[in-house]
Design goal:
Layout lengths: L29 H14 L2 H13 L3 H5 L3 H4 E2 L2 E2 L2 E5 L6 E5 L2 H11 L23 H14 L11 H4 L7 H10 L10
Length: 189
């Protein structure tokens, strides 16, 4: 049987991800989280600091974070210690704690004159958009990451959900210590 001599197929159009880093984005390390917080505090960016702190505390997807309403986090003249929302992707409720620092920045943001009459926690600039878009949130995150000298293409909105700043290894260490097992050294007889 003879081999066919067919012309080579060459795509005239480049792939959508040509030259881009693909795969999972990196999580923000605790030192990155604190560096961004300090920069936002020094810049006096109340909304951005409140948004960043809320993203770190809640671990919500970007679409759920930008749709937060004032009533979700604010009640009886104070910011709630815990709140619960319904996730848009899974339609399941998620409950999260709002730390003291985040409550302080949220209170400062909610009492800001720019927030008068707004239903959403992160209002959009235009009347036809009640809240900022997930794309705008991604742009803000890119600016924050750039401000501390990191490569913006390596981090995304999902990096806020993966940050290691609240990881506590103590329960894991305690669990493995109570097992009393040295893995790999068992003898079976």
């Amino acid at each position: 049987m003879s081999a066919l001599n067919l012309p080579m197929v060459v795509s005239a159009k480049k792939a959508w991800n040509h030259g881009r880093i693909i795969g999972q984005k990196r999580p923000l390390l605790p030192k990155h989280v604190w560096a961004i917080r300090v920069r936002l505090e020094l810049a006096g960016a109340v909304r951005d600091l409140a948004l960043f702190n809320m993203a770190v505390d809640s671990k919500l997807r970007g679409c759920d974070l930008v749709r937060l309403k004032v009533a979700d986090v604010f009640s009886a003249g104070a910011v709630k210690k815990r709140t619960s929302i319904l996730q848009s992707k899974t339609k399941s409720p998620v409950r999260f704690e709002i730390t003291d620092g985040t409550r302080k920045t949220l209170m400062e943001w909610i009492s800001n004159p720019e927030m008068i009459g707004h239903e959403y926690l992160w209002p959009g600039r235009f009347h036809d958009r009640p809240h900022i878009s997930t794309r705008q949130y991604a742009r803000l995150l890119k600016d924050w990451v750039c401000s501390i000298g990191l490569e913006p293409s390596a981090y995304g909105t999902h990096s806020m959900r993966l940050d290691l700043s609240r990881f506590d290894a103590a329960p894991l260490i305690a669990f493995t210590a109570t097992k009393g097992t040295n893995y790999g050294t068992e003898t079976y007889g």
